[in-house]
Amino acid sequence: MKSAVIVGKTSEIGQGLGERLKRDDWEILYKHYDEWHINPHWDLLVVCSGTLEPIGWFASVYMEDWIASVEVNGLIPLNVLHHCYAQQRPNASVCFFGGPNLAKSSPSYSAYRAGKVLLTEMVAVLNEETDLNVFMINPGVVKTKIHNQTLAAGARAANYERVKAMMDGNERTTTHDEIYQCLKWCIENKVKRVVHIDETR
Positive or negative CA dihedral for 99, 137, 80, 2? Predict the structure, then answer.
């Protein structure tokens, strides 16, 4: 039986993937990002840590919060992989999650963007330096509780109106089934790059 470690116990995306992998006969272990007293052997590592905070113009936020956000979005996934690296099985895959469209600016989400840019750049590095299949899924907007941070920010969030429309069901969002189909496609094809969800819809 193949084994998947999903890091991000409270992540709705992580829970959704875990449920679907289990239905397909994977053994699933959920972990918090700082739980390393049990390091199982794994065929798939999925890291779902992320935060949009602090939301607001760069000069207006507390720098301590900004640095903490870069850590959550960029450095923690890499720290997780570093801890788990020795337990990989042959042909193992690692899945990170991207967020912002890097072809556009991300006003009021600078820390989130900085962390995800760091992680995006490391996908190529890790595929050069390891024998893993490391990929990142850019899922678009998924209707999960992380967007409550934008709704709570109100006018501090540059895209408040668009996010509200999506959360109200007035715009299309990515489903958990679509994310799972993308994950399966990446594993089956031994993908080693950033993948946008539209590639596998």
Answer: positive
